[in-house]
Amino acid sequence: MSRLKRAEDNGIKVAWSNERFELWLLLHFQTLNATISRDQYITNLNKHFKSINNGCYDKNIKNIFDLTKDYVDIAIERSEKLRNQYKVNNSNYSKMNPGTNVDILVKELIKVTRNDT
Questions:
Q1: How many CB atoms sit inside 10 A of residue 73's CB?
Q2: What parts of the chain have a pLDDT lower than 70?
């Protein structure tokens, strides 16, 4: 049994991203329907970040939310479409590459922050 399945069976919701977290960020700027190499994520992000962060992506950008917030709705839409393209059982995350459910977490965080205001 996978760790993700075990967590879900115990009532714990997990955000995941295949093949790496940067997929979620990349979906802010482009549609991705095919597997790319782990290094290609960074290459693509560097291209998109030219205009928003002095030309480069860095894993530790402190203001990443501010840099990407204008694109979050399209990233959510692209994430949902990407997951929906798979005909496998949604608990078979390893088959979803590329695939992510970080959008679900982000939608929940948006709800919480909007309720606080």
A1: 12
A2: 1, 87-91, 116-117
* SS3 assignment, position 106: helix
Own/partner pairs, 17-20, CB within 8 angstroms, 24+ separation: 17/99, 17/100, 17/101, 17/102, 18/93, 18/94, 18/96, 18/97, 18/98, 18/99, 18/100, 19/97, 19/98
The pLDDT of residue 9 is: 86
CA 14 to the chain's CA centroid: 13
CB 22 within 8 A of CB 45: yes
CB-CB neighbours of 5 under 10 Å: 13
| Alpha helical stretches, state H, 11-63 | 22-26, 38-49
Note the pLDDT of residue 91.
59
Q: In degrees to the nearest 10, what's the CA dihedral of 22, 23, 27, 28? A: -10
